[in-house]
């Protein structure tokens, strides 16, 4: 089945099955695994386990309760934009099974932040942390991008536990330009200003691209310290195409988009390690990119990741991967 159709079919099936009262309990019994060693307190939040669902899967906050039943300790919704938008032209999602990878150029397709806010009112399990990943509309020029992030932040504030500022997707024209020092500092400072007007400010994290140079990563470290945001999510998808078991013609036929999955494993680990070592462990890092096994997850944590997120690995391996990772983390006793 074509990847995007498969996604919508699976979502419909999960939603339908959960209308049967016992299904949630059955899924929790199959995939759930709780242990005191898995629990983590980070940026003022309590995570029952360190494995999250990365943004991009539950864009519109439609299945966060159901994903919680599959064993995730936290679920990140979005990327959300102030106004609904259809995203890029189809086809825009492609499987590369030889490499356990995906290429997508979805383009922040979502129903808009207000629709997600309404769904978040039906949150059932408060032990599953919810993150809100926010971006800008495609038609919004970069000079006015801050307004989009402000709208998202204010609308979502009461519905999520933490925020992720997404300026690293390769699928919205010009978005990555916001990763440069001056516009990014300005954006994060403005969100922090709003945050500190609230009675209980919420953690703000920054999601970065894997394609940044070490000099750019140094800038990110300085920006995180200067703006005093809580941490970094490393990494988003890559525009690179190295190491794929496909011909040049096959890759060119797919076209533009962000690559995720196993080809990203090494680079994401490198970025995590660099951020942690160069900053002298100054802030938390959530590791994401190419986690398809318990061994991959352990490698990320040894590199310095405080939490991890799944996306492509979850698509290829299924929810059983969550339990396998949690069991291995307890067995190897490597969590701090």
Describe this entry's structure for a reader.
The protein is an alpha/beta fold. It has a single domain (3-332), classed as Aldolase class I (TIM Barrel). The protein is built from twelve helices and 13 strands. The chain has helices spanning 3-17, 23-31, 64-69, 113-120, 145-156, 181-195, 214-227, 248-254, 265-278, 294-303, 312-317, 320-332, and strands spanning 40-42, 45-47, 51-53, 74-80, 93-96, 101-104, 129-134, 162-166, 204-208, 231-234, 258-261, 285-288, 307-310. An eight-stranded parallel β-barrel has the order 3-4-7-8-9-10-12-13, surrounded by five helices. It has a three-stranded antiparallel β-sheet with strand order 5-6-11, with no helix packed on it. β1 (40-42) and β2 form a beta hairpin. α5 runs parallel beside α6 (181-195), α7 packs across α9 and α10 crosses α12. The longest helix is centred in the first third of the chain and has 15 residues, at 3-17. The chain starts with a helix and ends with a helix.
Give a count of the beta strands, DSSP E runs of length 2 or more.
Answer: 13
Beta-strand content bin: 15-25%
Average pLDDT reading: 97
The overall number of domains is 1
CATH superfamily: Aldolase class I
Give the N-terminus to C-terminus distance in angstroms: 42 Å
Pick out the low-confidence regions: none
CATH secondary-structure class? Alpha Beta
Which second-level CATH architecture applies? Alpha-Beta Barrel
Helix content range: 25-40%
The fold-level CATH name is TIM Barrel
Q: So how many helices?
A: 12
Sequence of secondary-structure elements: HHEEEHEEEHEHEHEHEHEHEHEHH
For the CA atoms, what is the radius of gyration? 19 Å
């Amino acid at each position: 089945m074509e990847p995007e159709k498969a996604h919508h079919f699976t979502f419909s099936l999960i939603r339908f099955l959960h209308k049967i009262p016992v299904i949630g309990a059955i899924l929790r019994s199959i995939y759930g695994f709780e242990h005191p060693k898995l629990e983590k307190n980070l940026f003022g939040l309590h995570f029952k386990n360190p494995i999250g669902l990365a943004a991009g899967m539950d864009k519109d906050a439609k299945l966060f309760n159901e994903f919680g039943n599959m064993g995730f300790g936290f679920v990140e919704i979005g990327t959300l934009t102030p106004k609904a938008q259809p995203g890029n032209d189809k086809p825009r999602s492609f499987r590369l099974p030889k490499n356990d990878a995906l290429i997508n150029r979805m383009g922040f397709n979502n129903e808009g932040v207000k629709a997600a806010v309404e769904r978040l009112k039906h949150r059932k399990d408060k032990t599953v942390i919810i993150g809100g990943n926010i971006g800008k509309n495609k038609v919004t020029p970069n000079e006015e991008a801050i307004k989009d992030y402000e709208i998202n932040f204010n609308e979502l504030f009461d519905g999520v536990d933490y925020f992720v500022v997404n300026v690293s997707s390769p699928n919205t024209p010009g978005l990555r330009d916001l990763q440069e020092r001056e516009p990014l500092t300005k954006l994060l400072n403005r969100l922090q200003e709003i945050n500190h007007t609230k009675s209980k400010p919420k953690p703000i994290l920054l999601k970065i691209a894997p394609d940044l140079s070490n000099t750019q990563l140094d800038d990110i470290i300085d920006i995180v310290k200067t703006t005093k945001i809580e941490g970094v999510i490393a990494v988003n998808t890559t525009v690179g195409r190295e190491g794929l078991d496909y011909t040049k013609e096959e890759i060119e036929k797919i076209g533009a988009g962000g690559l995720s999955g196993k080809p990203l494993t090494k680079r994401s680990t490198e970025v995590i390690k660099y951020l942690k070592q160069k900053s002298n462990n100054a802030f938390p890092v959530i590791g994401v990119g190419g986690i398809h096994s318990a061994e991959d997850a352990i490698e990320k944590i040894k590199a310095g990741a405080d939490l991890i997120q799944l996306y492509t690995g979850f698509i290829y391996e299924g929810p059983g991967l969550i339990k396998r990772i949690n069991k291995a983390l307890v067995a190897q006793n490597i969590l701090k």
